[in-house]
Amino acid sequence: MQRRPRGLNAGLILLLSQIFHVGINNIPPVTLATLAVNIWFFLSPLKPVYSSCLSVEKCYQEKDWQRLLLSPFHHADDWHLYFNMVSMLWKGIHLERRLGSRWFAYVITTFSLLTGVVYLFLEFAFAECMGEPDFKRSCAVGFSGVLFALKVLNNHYFPGGFVNVLGFPVPHKFSCWAELVAIHLITPGTSFAGHLAGILVGLMYIHGPLKKIMETCAGIFSSNNGYPGQQYYFNNSGYSGYQDYYPYGRPGYQENVHRNYDAYTAGLSEEEQLERALRASLWDRGNSRNTSPSYGFRLPPEEEMRRMRLHRFDRQ
Fold first, then answer.
1. How distant is the alpha carbon of residue 202 from its chain centre?
2. In 90-208, beta strands by DSSP E
3. What is the distance between the alpha carbons of residues 147 and 82, in angstroms, rounded to a whole number?
């Protein structure tokens, strides 16, 4: 096991402050475990990034298939880890409560493997169709492919509303595609195939056979068996609450944690939370130690929240 060189990891510090501000007890167990695993492998990677990243050349031609397991949980630097894990925190809170912890763990595991497989297929197809062997050597690392797949699920289960992408309002159901294009226009060094693979895996789960295959493999032949008692209601701005919800997949469970997550997300979307976190970080750097505020999400006045609009893309 490798040790990451010592030094100030501002992204890691900011991520930990976000987690503690939300509260460990308020984060569902599988989401918390996913955050912990990614942080652990960032601090003590099993292999260097170059030896854990995913490529056709390394996996298929050199038969180094362990990269399928390693690549999602290794990150290039602390800010790569920060943006991915803050996104995971927001998505996990919503989806794990919606799906139940055991099924969500199953989804995370399946998506982690399948996004890598689809990524290899896409890079191989690009190389063959375009006659560019460099695609086979393109090496990707990080959790963002899984996050794009989870974004498809989140947009499906919590529909409605818009997100601003580069200043243009985009319906949530199309936001994945808009953000895919926007990210690679602004930061072309990111893995287009890796993010596209995540979207395709999410679509296979929502609209394709993947969910049924997973249910069959898990011995679940009726989708209702996995999510008893879930009754959701919506308004014209999207998801607004739930009734008779059993968070761990069974009735009679008494949940001690308050379930109104607006209390610590301030009612903001994932993109708005990221923007406010960065503003808090930049504000802190410009002030003295004695007056530095805690990082994390703040509760702005109601009027300010109404006026707030996002003018950046989801950086995953």
1. 12
2. 162-165, 168-171
3. 13
| 195 given a catalytic annotation | yes
Q: Which entry of 80, 112, 195, 269 is annotated as an active-site residue?
A: 195
> What is the token pair recorded at 239?
């998801």
Distances (CA, A) of 44 to 7, 48, 64, 113, 170: 14, 10, 21, 21, 39
Identified catalytic residue from 112, 138, 144, 191: 144
Token pair belonging to 175: 């936001």
Task: Give the C-alpha separation, 242 to 108, whole Å.
Answer: 23
Q: What is the residue whose two structure tokens read 């990891």?
A: 9
Rounded Cα distance, 237 and 9, in Å? 37
Task: For residue 258, indicate whether it is catalytic.
Answer: no
Encode the chain (316 residues) as per-residue pLDDT tens digits.
Answer: 555 555 668 899 999 999 999 999 999 999 999 999 999 999 989 888 888 999 999 988 888 899 999 999 999 899 999 999 999 999 999 999 999 999 999 999 999 999 999 999 999 999 999 988 888 888 999 999 999 999 999 999 988 788 888 888 888 888 889 889 888 888 877 888 999 999 999 999 999 999 999 999 988 544 444 443 333 333 322 322 222 333 334 333 333 444 444 444 444 555 555 555 555 545 544 544 443 333 333 334 444 434 433 333 344 5
pTM beyond 0.85: no
The C-alpha atoms of residue 245 and residue 35 are separated, in whole angstroms, by: 24
Rounded CA separation 249/220 (Å): 13
For residues 205 and 99, what is the distance between their CA atoms, to the nearest angstrom?
13
What are the structure tokens assigned to 187, written together? Answer: 């930061």
